[in-house]
Write a structure and sequence with these properties.
homotetramer; 338 residues; alpha/beta; Dihydrodipicolinate Reductase, domain 2; seven-stranded mixed sheet; six-stranded parallel sheet; 32% helix
């Protein structure tokens, strides 16, 4: 397998760490640069779990530096707007870009500007950039030099809901999404709210009615199903490292039974290596440290419920990125992800 | 303060442990008997945290034995139907009974029989037994020799929802209740599902659409508000010892603002020592090891959301029991509960 | 009971929170001031678990302000050297001072200066200030206006070791102390090392051979036993909120059996309400949220081992402080601590 | 790569689960049988995290059944003495056997019989069976049809101590080993002691002076170093899923500095892919979910300390087994283990 030269931008956080672990298992991955604006330490000091696995150091590199090093694919773990500030130049220089952040997830720059309270630096690319969920948008991803890796919560919500909307089983205008995430989702920057003694033995909701994944979920559900989805999304911080469990409640539109819905979803995701429609109620335990989503459906009274579980750092971030990498480079989609 | 002779039935579980800890702080409590059908060990061996605090042993005692010992108040932590099998005799012998279980929570024996899949041993007492939530039913509790201590999930859901229903702010027919509980709620009997390596780093839903607290919540909301409440209730097992966070979603019935609703709830619970209506989003962290409930309300689109937090073992069990004990014995309601 | 006016200095951390919770239960405690250099918020916002319990705000107050408010006892949770910078004036103004920090724990200012790498601001008071472990130094504490509350690790190590040294059962020159502490011991200031995803599912040693509790343990063991104790002390950060388990290994000096040693320790601590000599191996679970220490002893080959458990925030800090408060004010020593 | 037909005996526990996950990544592994005495469910129901990964069911199979299925290598996760009851026949039938249990770890059946309180079913094979720690016994393993996979605690202790003993840096007669393990080490059989609410927020020592890994560590240290090692070993149950941190204290024999010892260990393990000698203090966090051991050394007074971290289920069990599989089958030793 021919090696592909890779750069990881913003390599000091948790998603970059997971990415580097996965790439270590990828026979075609040759990581030639890891960047940080401030840190110049060996990456194995920044992330001690990489000791003996990577010998390179963090560097503050510009697109031209990456080009000089022969970089072919850039994974960007930069904060929002930072990727969109460099992506045009990277693409211009012939590199492919997989963005972990939100910069290219939405189609509409106005929506982005409103929810992120900034002016998007590269609005023209938004409509044409594919949303990096291969299960729904594989064809578009395959031919794109730029991929917008999905948010972690959206992945957990869209995988069960998009098919049910598309199939006409649930109403699009009254979807309640109640998600529970591990603390790694809050990032690696120290703050009172993600201190161990504040999070441990504690569960709480946050960003009620205001979380930025709300428009992302609505837009992608709408794109995928053709129905103008309207959601209420409530994330909760849960005392565990990683994993997201998402419970949704939608209005039932017809008399399809629970078994019908399970069969429909099984058929919808037949052949997908990373989506398992299960009979039992999913637990995050069964999917953490994997790129898989376990999902199921329940009919309760006049409601259809879905319950889905992913690892927020893998299927919700680094694993999805490697999956997209495999798609755009033509590798078997499961490479490094089993 | 005159001492009251107390027996604790079924003393080997977690709720009994918390009860014994609280009673240790109660100036009027004189625990003269702790029972178990099988265990005859010192209670301080069954619960090592009671070392030096209690010297009595577990015994297999009958109502007449308790009477012979002068017991005045019985706290029963027995499994469902076991309390109803002995309560008539205890009451007959002049003892007061506070039941931690479900036996006397519902008014309708048919509903009990259906959800618990048994025949209720003492159906006639159901309609007249007060539901032991003093914030809503203080007057009835005060004059009753038998009190049905509320379920943990119901406490967390009823405290925020009953006033909103009563005030006409939310619709009664489409209430979604998504609860997250610590593992102690599953009891102290070993089983695969509550092993540490199964629960840790894991969140999952269970008993979707079938949890026995569903009819309890519906009935008490209906009683408290006069509206025939209809709910969907989903409990989740969360990797923490104790605490319940309950997030609810109801249809908004009028244009009362979030501030209006907060003000209404504050007024409703003014003077209640154990219910705090808070502006910020509650965390279980702030109420565990206390008898308090923190709750708040949010208006999101066409929905009114409530978020509430309690300790499942205290306000959801042992603390509520001591609060009821204080009510029926005429002590200050906060005794031993600060 | 006559009320005592209390101030808590440095009220925003975890030990101050536990202190405020305990004082809420103390019939004589009247907290009239809580201080912070920077924070002016209501203390119930700084610590949401105090909602409805305290209505006062943090203030930046000087000794004269405290005197003006009638403060009689000051609990200081300030960082090291900060208490010694104000204690002389507080004492001069007639207030009693209980210091949570290290400033007055050692007798020898030179040792303090070396280990804390500063110049002690009030060296003359060191030799006469009692070490606030009532189980060993009750008489001295009773008559002192200034008490040095012990460190959390030292409490867990000194309680089992001091009697064994004093009784001549173990050698003083080769004591190995291996301690495991919950993360709250690292304080409430955000830093990478105490982030949830760094601490959770992780155990590690820190400050090997260099922890500042080393000279404190050595000096107090020496004072208490009359033998010049020499220790190796290794603390470990353990994924739990609170609790310290300390395992020690000492050379056995005579042929006293394990039963002899247990009996000796039981006699030594007979009547002490907060030290329980137990047969079984202690768990932090059994002592957290209490002011108690569980300890035991084992003879293994040529070594005597002790294993002891405390709550680092209570018996290791706030509970010990309230115990000292009770001693110096003449209250029953268990007041607010059951 | 030619496929090797594999059977996993005793497939319902945690070590078997980890083994099956690793084998899923191994290009030569063809798992054709998973056994259980009682369970006949699909292995993906026993371990939901294997959903979609394995379609076979648990079966109660005898050696002849395995032979009929063409099994070439047997991994046995059976309890002690159960492997030794079938290993002779498996070997006779030409299969290779890697035993996760203790049956073939010791050389001396009398020691086994004493510590395990049974009569060894196959004592003659003990002296010749290699101890499956390739870093120390690679040559012997390579040529053996039977390998005794090391215990988890022994792996964590032997890797740092054996070289120091061999090099003459530490005394062999006074080694203290204080280990801290995650709860998965206690297995998957439900019991009160490994319930979530008993283990969470709790650390405790167990089996003080009596743990069965004691003779194993002593014997292997003796074999590896030529010095008759004598240890005190104390395991602790720590509130985390997996990971072992081992802190050891030995008498320093010469004036080699900490830097000398680090350099010596680095040289000793140069080229070993799974042992990293690190400068910083190891954390289990950095090695869990990997086959690696991080270890370091400290000189503190007259003692040499080592601190080492492994994942008890991987380097301490399933990963070591796959490493041994690679050794005996002639694959690159890191296959499936990066």
């Amino acid at each position: 397998m021919e090696k592909i030269k890779i750069a990881v931008l913003g390599a000091t956080g948790y998603t970059a760490l997971e990415l580097l672990k996965l790439l270590r298992r990828h026979p075609a991955a040759d990581v030639v640069a890891v960047t940080s604006r401030e840190n110049t330490s060996p990456i194995a000091e920044v992330h001690p779990s990489l000791t003996g696995q990577y010998s390179i150091c963090c560097e503050n590199l510009k697109p031209a530096d990456l080009q000089a090093r022969g970089v072919q694919v850039v994974f960007s773990c930069l904060p929002h707007t930072a990727t969109a500030a460099v992506a045009p130049e990277l693409l211009e220089l012939g590199m492919k870009v997989i963005d972990f952040g939100a910069d290219y997830r939405l189609n509409d720059a106005a929506v982005f500007n409103k929810w992120y309270n900034v002016v998007h630096p590269d609005p023209d690319r938004l409509p044409s950039t594919p949303y990096g969920l291969p299960e729904l948008f594989r064809a578009q991803i395959k031919n794109s030099a730029l991929v917008a890796n999905p948010g972690c919560y959206p992945t957990s919500a869209i995988l069960p809901l998009a098919p049910l909307l598309k199939g006409g089983y649930i109403a699009e205008d009254d979807i309640i999404i109640d998600s529970k995430s591990g603390v790694s989702g809050a990032g690696r920057k120290p703050s009172l709210k993600n201190l161990y003694p504040e999070c441990n033995e504690a569960i709480s909701a946050y960003a009620v009615g205001t979380h930025r994944h709300t428009p992302e979920i609505e837009e992608v559900l709408t794109t995928a199903s053709g129905k103008a989805a309207k959601i209420i999304f409530t994330p909760h911080l849960t005392p565990m490292d990683r994993g997201i469990l998402t419970t949704t409640y939608s209005k039932r539109l017809n008399d399809a039974s629970q078994e019908d819905l399970l069969a429909y979803l099984r058929k919808f995701y037949a052949g997908e290596p990373f989506v398992q429609v299960v009979d039992a109620l999913p637990s995050t335990k069964d999917v953490i440290h994997t790129n898989r989503c376990h999902l199921t459906v329940r009919v309760v009274g006049s409601r259809v419920m879905t319950i889905s579980a992913i690892d927020n750092l893998i299927k919700g971030a680094a694993g999805a990125a490697v999956q997209n990498f495999n798609v755009i480079c033509g590798f078997d989609e499961t490479t490094a992800l089993l």
